[in-house]
Design goal:
Elements (H helix, E strand, L loop, with lengths): L17 H18 L12 H10 L5 H14 L3 H5 L3 H8 L5 H19 L7 H4 L7 H14 L20 H9 L8 H11 L5 H14 L50
Helix pairs in contact: 1-11, 2-8, 5-6, 9-11
Length: 268
């Protein structure tokens, strides 16, 4: 006797062929490009080192808060040398508003020391080397490569190259919108990134994530998405659910919600 299908299984998004999905993704890319023709990195920075540090601080913290903290942080510790030699109590006091300040201050100092020991204090324009630094995961590394392309950093690649390991930034906004738009049905950022990379032209990678982030803040917000006014509504399977599609509901058999009291800042 075949197993019974569980009751109340949330329906998935409408089925579509790979060709239709790519065509829909291309229209989404074009509309977002028209709305945000020149998106900029929201974390304030004057150098690759400052952006690296700011991105590490942004784990489980808003960009606005990071931008409030970093002016004093970079005034006191403007270089890897200064941060590596910083008094840890001073470092903790400055980064405290960003949350997880003890872990973050230790990570910043460890990262600065690793930069000095392994790369002479320079930020390596290499995905593998970047992700070996303390506190640096794919998201942080992709932020740096995106900024390098948008801001034309010297000695950095200005477009993704085959097999260089770079990809698309996946933060909370990108993850949320990717699932609402049914560009990916995964919750794991690495799998979401892989789905997006298969759909989005390589030349669009740097700016596409930024456009999703801006759109996620303006229209497709987490709590109250503006579906009736959304310019992507015709391309979004979630619009008829007002941004709360059944495939994004927590599975009845899924894991319990994380205990926020024990949460730790991720290796972004």
């Amino acid at each position: 006797m075949p197993p019974r299908r569980p009751l109340h299984t949330p329906p998935g998004p409408p089925r579509e062929s790979a060709e239709r999905k790519r065509a829909r993704a291309a229209r989404i890319v074009a509309l977002l490009r028209r709305r945000y023709p020149d998106p900029q990195i929201p974390l304030r920075h004057r150098s690759p080192f400052e952006l690296l540090i700011a991105t590490i601080l942004s784990a489980q913290c808003t960009d606005e808060m990071v931008n409030r903290v970093t002016p004093l942080l970079f005034e006191r510790f403007p270089t890897p040398e200064a941060m590596a030699a910083a008094d840890i109590a001073q470092l903790r006091a400055i980064v405290r508003p960003t949350g997880f300040y003890q872990q973050k201050s230790a990570t910043l100092q460890a990262c600065a020391r690793a930069l000095l020991e392994r790369h002479g204090g320079e930020i390596p324009p290499d995905m593998d080397h970047l992700t070996r630094l303390p506190g640096v995961g794919r998201k942080t590394a992709n932020v740096l490569f995106s900024a390098a392309a948008i801001e034309q950093w010297p000695d950095w690649p200005h477009a993704p190259r085959e097999r260089d390991g770079t990809g698309i930034v996946v933060d909370t906004h990108v993850a949320r919108l990717s699932r609402r738009l049914a560009l990916s049905l995964h919750t794991d950022p690495v799998k979401i990134e892989q789905d997006l990379m298969a759909l989005i032209p390589r030349r669009e990678w740097a700016r596409f994530a930024l456009r999703l982030i801006y759109f996620g803040r303006e229209i497709c917000t987490a709590k109250q998405p503006k579906c009736p006014f959304c310019p992507l509504s015709e391309l979004c399977p979630s619009s008829k659910y007002l941004g709360r599609p059944p495939w994004m509901e927590r599975s009845r058999s899924g894991a319990a919600k994380p205990d926020r009291r024990r949460a730790r800042a991720p290796n972004a």
